[in-house]
Write a structure and sequence with these properties.
This protein is mainly β. The chain has strands at 14-20, 34-40, 45-52, 58-59, 63-75, 78-86, 92-97, 102-106, 109-117, 122-130, 141-150, 162-170, 173-180, 184-186, 190-202, 205-213, 218-229, 233-237, 240-248, 253-262, 269-278, 290-298, 301-308, 312-314, 318-330, 333-341, 346-351, 356-357, 364-372, 377-386, 396-403, 415-420, 446-448.
Length: 450
Amino acid sequence: MTIVATVDPAATGTVTNTASATSSTDDPNPDNNTSSVTNSLSPKADLKIEKTTPPRVVSAGETVDFALTVTNAGPSQARDVHITDVLPAPLEYVSASGLGFTCSRDGARVDCTLATLDPQAQGRVVVKARIPASAAVTENTEIVNTASVTSTTPDPNTEDNSASLKVPTGTSADLAVTKTGPAKAVAGGKIEWTLEAVNNGPSDADHAVLTDELPSSIDPATAKVTTESGPLTCAIESATVTCRADRFAAEAEAKVVITASVKADADGGDLVNTATIASKTPDPTTSNNSSSATTEITRSADVSVTKTGPSSAIVGDTVVYTITVANDGPSSATDVRVTDALPTGMVFVKTSEPACTGEAGSQSMTCLFASLAPGQKREIEVTGRVLPGTSIDMPLTNIATADSKTPIPTRRITAARWRRSSKPRPSSSSRRRPIRRHSPRGAPRRISSR
């Protein structure tokens, strides 16, 4: 008779098997009715380790999970299972865990142990590692990571007790910029923009450059740039603001403020200013690499007019007075019109300004200037004549006005007035006799300012 039995996979040492025979008939020699065989047990556990990770490029600054799976092909139970994974540079340890395993780390070496692993059973450990954001890895660089497994139970096949995995690495830096500015600004006035840049990672950005080309309506000579925070160093050349950082660390932020003046002759309407950031490190999201701020440009020119003239005028004589039109800004004034309306009793004779026109003998003069820059003045000398017969009972009031196509916040008008003098002009005959209270008929009459 042949009996086939299976040894307990966890058994160790020796095993003794005893057979016995009995009968209902008396046995004259019962001493030989039993027989035993003792065998020494030789446990064997064929362990195999496999290493996997998601199929992707791991960029500097990212973590990677290595799954280490140990299978016991038997036939015996494996005791004191020991997994070892030495992380190669530049990988840095983050964590290691597995059901039933006890894991520890010593530098780059990760050790995980399991008391027993039954035949046909599996054990799994996940080792999490990270590539530093500043790691000097290049595109298509591969990191080779090897893990191994051992046991105090003899392994009949050690060729599958280690496994290696190649991990493709690279760099990736998601740079982003946000630009803000005022909703409105006045031509000739100040404007300020704020640029906020951030590296969303995962890698450090190599040679990051933030650029802002100022619009043509901005006076580059007045532009200033200030780095309020972050690694950027900024400068202005011509009309371009450039900020640089040899290394823009992952998760780092920067704030830059640009101030400038809008040109006084800038057209009204929307002014759009765009900032852009980039680096030599591949950027996974380029849609946030540029940001624009739109500001409505308005125009305002405080055009004023003043008028000066003699303190008095004699009926029948000419009067020379000066009109000064000025622009106090902040914007350039375009299509400036100055009108001088002469009062009844006075007529236009001539003017020194080529931009002014008036018909001799009329009572009006008009001047047209294409533009007046902020701070600019134009003086207009006008000659008029007081008509004979003009009443000296009422003062002569001469008013000049100025207007512009550019909106004027405050209109200022200066008037020059003349009235009758208390004394007539002396004549050759009057020098020889006392001055009368009233001028005789035909004698000159003087009109003076009020």
